[in-house]
């Protein structure tokens, strides 16, 4: 089974990601991009004041938070277990918010 993680190997045996300059650069770039998208989303929500825009902006905010958690992991501030737990939770929340935005957007369009 080449390519799969062996669950019998202790977590300490896997390579560390702490302090990797490449990962820090990539995560900072991602954090900058998602942070900028979040700010644009805030302005869009402020102008439109609709539930759909609020849901999308919240999803963008969580996406930006996800990058912060990743950066904290690479810098050794967030344990890998917490990183994986929050990343998957954030993925679920982002999906839920975007699907809700589609649902609410269709209802809003029918009312107008």
SSE blueprint and pairings:
Elements: H1 21-48, H2 51-74, H3 80-111
Point out poorly predicted stretches.
Answer: none
Query: Based on DSSP secondary structure assignment, what is the total number of beta strands?
Result: 0
Helix content range:
over 70%
Biggest pleated-sheet summary: none
Mean pLDDT: 86
* Number of structural domains: 1
Structural class: mainly alpha
Classify the beta-strand content into a percent band.
under 5%
How many distinct helices?
3
Please supply descriptive tags for the structure shown above:
0% strand, 112 residues, elongated, 3 helices, mainly alpha
Short characterization:
With 112 residues, the protein is mainly alpha-helical. The chain contains 3 helices and no strands.
Describe the fold and architecture.
- By secondary structure, the chain is mainly α.
- It has one domain (20-111).
- The chain is built from three helices and no strands.
- Helix 1 (21-48) runs antiparallel to helix 2 and helix 2 (51-74) packs antiparallel against helix 3 (80-111).
- It starts with 20 loop residues before the first helix and ends with a helix.
- The model has no long low-confidence stretch (mean pLDDT 86).
């Amino acid at each position: 089974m080449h390519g799969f993680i062996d669950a019998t190997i202790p977590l300490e045996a896997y390579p560390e990601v702490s302090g990797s300059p490449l990962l820090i650069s990539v995560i900072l770039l991602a954090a900058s991009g998602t942070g900028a998208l979040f700010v644009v989303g805030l302005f869009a929500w402020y102008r439109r004041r609709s539930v759909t825009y609020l849901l999308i902006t919240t999803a963008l905010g969580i996406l930006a938070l996800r990058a912060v958690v990743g950066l904290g992991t690479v810098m050794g501030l967030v344990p890998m277990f917490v990183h994986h737990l929050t990343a998957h939770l954030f993925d679920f929340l982002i999906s839920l918010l975007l699907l809700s935005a589609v649902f609410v957007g269709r209802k809003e369009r029918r009312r107008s």
